[in-house]
Amino acid sequence: MLTEIQILEYLSDIESERIERTISVSNTDKFGEAICAFSNDINNCKSAGYLFIGANDNGSFSGLKASDELLRNLAGMRSDGNILPQPALTVYKHSFADGDIVVVEVQPSSFPPVRYKGKVWIRIGPRKAIANESEERILIEKRTANASTFDSRPCYEASFESLKTDVFNAYYLPRAIDKTILSSDQRTDSFKLASLRFYDLKLDVPTNAGILLFGYNPEYYHFGSYVQYVQFEGKSMSSKVVNEHKFTGDLVSILSKLDSFIETTIVQKHPVFISALREETRRSYPHLAIRELLMNAIMHRDYESNAPIKFYEFSNRIEVVNPGGLYGNARPENFPTVNDYRNPILAESMKVLGYVNRFNRGILNVQEELIENGNGKAEFDFDKITVFSVTVYNAVDLLITGGGYREKANSKRIVSAQDSAQDSAQDSAQDKVPIALTKTQLQILEFCTQEKFRRDILFNIGLSNHYKNYQRHIVPLVNFALLSMLYPAEPTTKNQKYITTEKGKIVLYNALKN
């Protein structure tokens, strides 16, 4: 972080390959191009570049009063997916008598070329420019020297003929490169692949990322590079297998097939009783949440393992298990707010293909989707060192059982003592579900689809507000978790009302249907 004295020194100097000034606070394209150019470090300065916001071209102050929103927006450019691979930057401000200066400090990327909206920007002295073929080759060579992650390494057994270049050219390239750049690009396919880190020009072989994304037979080189789906009839793996499928081949194809499979096969819609004249459709799982969890498994898995991604569907839940635990800076105590990428090239590619919307927000969005759909939060298991697993419970099953069932033998949960006691009470309530309800009980459940007082319930079935009538007709429905109190902590309050539970609505719907 620069000191105030250093900032003043830089402002008094002329712009260079490491310095850019602007008075704009809203020109995100200008900011993105500058960050991209500093990241590429074409002159190999090996030092940070600085974008000063709030300074005129001559170095004088513009009188800026920097807002927190401006700082957040600038910091958000790191992970909004427009700059790929993600830049390493910090944003901070210093306040002077003549105004604020916001500093965006950008570190050189270890994996150039870096692109902003599909264009490779570099700095040539004090100005920015789009890299030409020779300059991009320099950046590729810099990247090769720094290659360290598995997906960036060369796949020595493969060759150029191992890749589906037609898929790369027709499907991927138009999404990755700006169309104006692409229209005038006369380079060979191997050079185009190399510029996106899918090919090693020096060794004349594809990288592991190239094989995984566009290879004719990725499983030949990486034995576990597939997704194994199994559907079980019951709640454990000992139950009957009713469906299974192996998703194998290049990732471009797998991702598309999985997306369609989740929407058409996994997400099931069920009618749920609301009243005698109305019912609603509930989804077992939200499509986008399950897709995000599977995409995360594909993006973050350890491809050096021979084990596949396991996508198991039970009658009451889905489990996704992928080889490789949390990676890098990600820890159980900071997950999911802190993330790190075992396969940064695959992560970038999945953003280009539209399967990742914004880095570091995926899991938070998943939890919001699941809660809104009635599944409850996804449960992550960090205890197994060699694998990472997540469990999502079926929302319709939770609705029918009142949320009481948990398959503890197959899905380890970390819960508080209070949660355990609540689960135990719910499990106990489930053991008391009656075999059949009387006509009067069904009448009460139908009447109480909206909150009702005890006296009104009994009057509706032709009885007086006597305690014995209450004990005989209302209390059993409460014990069965078919009817619930509005104020359960104050059962005798004069304001007490009763309402049919979601479980009660299911029971009522099934009874009326039959």
Name its key features.
514 residues; alpha+beta; 4 domains; 6-stranded mixed beta sheet; 20 helices
Sequence-ordered SSE layout with sheet pairings:
Blueprint: H1 4-12, E1 19-22, H2 28-40, E2 49-53, H3 68-76, E3 83-84, E4 88-96, E5 99-107, E6 115-116, E7 119-124, E8 127-130, H4 133-146, H5 165-176, H6 179-183, H7 189-195, E9 199-200, E10 205-206, H8 208-214, H9 218-221, E11 227-232, E12 241-247, H10 251-266, E13 269-275, E14 278-283, H11 287-300, E15 309-313, E16 317-323, H12 344-352, H13 362-373, E17 379-381, E18 387-393, H14 395-401, H15 417-431, H16 439-447, E19 452-453, H17 454-460, H18 467-473, H19 475-479, E20 483-485, E21 497-500, H20 502-513
How is this structure best summarized?
This protein has 514 residues and is an alpha+beta fold.
Account of the 3D structure:
The chain has 514 residues and is α+β, with helices and mostly antiparallel strands. The protein folds into four domains: 4-130, 2-Layer Sandwich (Methyltransferase, Cobalt-precorrin-4 Transmethylase, Domain 2); 147-221, no CATH class; 227-426, Heat Shock Protein 90; 432-513, Arc Repressor Mutant, subunit A (Orthogonal Bundle), CATH 1.10.10.10. It is built from 20 helices and 21 strands. It has a six-stranded mixed sheet. Strands 1-2-5-4 form a four-stranded mixed sheet, with helices on both faces. Helix 11 (287-300) packs antiparallel against helix 13. The protein starts with a helix and ends with a helix.
